[in-house]
Structure formats: C-alpha cells, structure tokens
Amino acid sequence: MEWSFQTAEELVAALRAGAVTSVELTDEAIARIERDDKVINAICVPDFDRARAAAHHADQARARGEDRPLLGIPVTVKESYNIAGLPTNWGMPPHRNYMPAEDAVQVSRLKAAGAVVLGKTNVPLGLQDIQSFNEIYGTTVNPWDHGRTPGGSSGGSAAALACGFGALSIGSDIAGSLRTPAHFCGVYAHKPTVGLAANRGMVAPSEPALPVDLDLAVVGPMARTARDLMLLLDVMAGPDPLTLGVAHRLALPPARHERLSDFRVLVLDEHPLIPTGAAVRAGVNRVADALVDGGARVERHSPLLPDLTEAATLYMQLLISGSVARFPTESHEQLRTRVAGLSADDQSLSTTRLRAMVFSHRDWMDANNRRELHRHAWRQLFTEFDAVVCPITPTPAFPHDHTPNPLDRRIDIDGVEYPYFDQLVWAGLATMPGLPATAVPAGRSPEGLPVGVQLIGPAFEDRTPLRLAELLEQKVGGFQTPK
Fold this sequence. Notes:
two-stranded antiparallel sheet, 15 helices, Amidase signature (AS) enzymes, Amidase_dom, alpha/beta
C-alpha cells in the first residue's frame, strides 16, 4: 500500500494498529522526495539521515507501549524555523551558513509529539514575497503548473504537502504566508489567533531566539485535511514556557457548533480596493452554496462588518511600518523626502505603504488605537455570526515573476493589472485584528488550478473555523492530488 497521501490521522491509526512502521513511512516519503523534488524544489534542506534515525526511535518507543500525538509521522518544517544542526538563512546570502544552536519552540513541540522531521521547505528572500524563490535555494514551482508559483512565504511547505512529501508541515503568516500557498496548492492551512502559538526560534538568522510578542505574525499548521490541522494545532498551541514558566497546554474553547445547519456565516466576495477574479469568486460561491445546502444561515451583507477600506489601510500601515523599522538611515531620509512630496489626495494602497515606511511612533500608536476599534467591531460581528467566508487572494496561483523590485510587479486579475502587493488586502482582513483564519480548498479554476477560501473566526475560538472547514470538506471536496 502507498501511504504518501494518507492523512496524518490515518497514519497514526495505521501505526497504532501495526499496519505500518515509521521507518516504512519515512523511507517512502524520502523516496518520493528524491524522485519528484528535483522538479518541484520544495525541500531546500533535507535531513534524511536524522529522519531515518528518528523513525527508528519512534518504532522502538511504540514497541515499548508509548503513544504520542504524532509518534512516527513524517513532517516538514519551513526553512525559517531554527533546527539545531541545520542552516537557517531565510534565503539571505549573507547568512547562508548560519547554524542555530537549538530548535525553535515549535520544532521542539513537533519532536516531543513524536514527529519525524524530513527537512526544511523553501521560502522567499527574507520571507518577504508572495512567491518562494531565493538565490541560495532557487525557485519552488507549483505542483499543479510548474510555470506558476506555489505562493509564499510558506510556499515550500504547501508544495511539499501537495506532492506527498510528509503528512504535515509548519509555517508562518503575516501577509497570508500560510493561507496563500494553501490556496495556490490546494491544501489546508490555519492562521491561529495572534499570540496563541509560541514563536520563539522562528527568527531571522543570527538574531537571538527570544520570546517576543509579534504584532501581526503567527506560526501555524499546514495539512491535507481540516482534521489534521486541528491535530497539529493542538501540538503547537500554547504560550512560551520562558514567559510563563508553565507547560504549554492551553484549553481552547470547543467549536460553537458541530452541525453545518447551526452555523451563521457571512460571505464576502467583493473588496472596495481590488476586484475579485472570476475563478476565486466562483470558489467563494461554491462554498456559499454548500453552506446553504447544508442548512447554514448565510448572509452576504452586514452593517456590523468593519469598513474594509480602513481595515486594508490600517493593515498596510502596521505591516509596512513594522517591516521597515530596521531600514538604514540613508534610505529613511530619502523616503522622508519622497513622502513629503506626495499629494494629500492620494489615498491609494501604494501611497499608504510608502507613507507607512516613515511612520513615527505616534503614527503607529494612532494606527494601533484604530485597530482596537476594529477588534471591537469584530467582537460585535461575532455575536451575530460564527464565521466569515472570503477570498485569500483575488486570483489562483500566478506565473513566476522575478522582477527584482517587487514594486514594479503587477498582478493580473481577469486581464487588468493592479499593483502586486494590493492582493494582500484579503489576507490582511484577518491579520490586522489578529483573528484565526482557516484556508480550505474550494474547487478548481477553469484552467484546473486550485482555488481556496478562508474561514475567519472569533479570537481564540480557532476550533470554530476549523470545525466549519471539516464540515465543508465533506460537501465541497478537499485536497486532490495534482494531475
């Protein structure tokens, strides 16, 4: 029997029943990677010798009667996580040989749960792109169409899952970096509530691995089914023991509902700042139809929804001001001069991003205060609804575009070009207020490319969108092997 596309849940059951060993699963995964990854280039740092040793230890542990949530399950890890003994360089040539001394918290949790780490998956330079290519490790391609990107920055992880290179992966998300690759590659991902899962050791190379409260970024699970996401999230969830001095267990409340007919869902497919391409709109509508068919209460509009234009503006302000905080002074001064010459009437997202590059602390505090108003509005919305369904990006996976300056790139939406980074507004809808969001497959485009949608849920009620994802999987169809 071939095991590569079995779910993690199925593999756990097979291992417990003695139907397969971890060594057999690991050898099969490695053989598949060695056969297929020359083309896909998802696994940028293989760790096969240690994986085989870990699998052997897992089988010995099971023979002794041990049982852990992921005991013997082959997994991959995004390159940006520190793993002792492997390089962590985020695709940045100056840090090509940086070797961390200890595992990231989440890598430690994977190993403690018994997982077998096959290796690390490819990322964009500095995790700063919607594609996954860099000078050190090259370009990862989309398993459905090698001329297109698998997305970024967790693109290697999504491509690996779509190709059967391990049952699970862990990634991170600040601008759709979990959700967009899942959407582009036809797999599942979950952006947890901000602060739910400790991030120590998911840190730029050579920076100290300290517990930090990231403003927008999260670490999270990727898988081929919704139930596998929950399995992995249960391993990942919980605060950093360095900050609390306690074990990492955290009790998430149960899903609000168990049956589809009990869910109240707001469906969005239009954004005031960027059009939704026909293929993605069709995916949203497939999910909406499945919800209606399952007896859920579905609405298309609500006065409780926070203003989408302001939400996108705040998201860009917080994202960009945070990411350029380490700019050298010369660049900062040049930017200040450029921003000073901008017309006050220009409120485009491109100009918003430019202004955010020179934000003062006062400017950031103002944006942060307005974010709290949005968070409160979302709390009000979630008294009337259980989840919001909306796009992740306006299009399916787009062709590789390695234009050196990303600001010169464009995204083609049904034949019309828009600024490349404007496509982040949908990802930012959940990121800016720190809400959980589950990326789920929603069929395919006319060209046969995967299309996904995101299910946004209430803060710290991650099990609610995850349960909805599981119920939808039965109606819309989940992961399919790339043809």
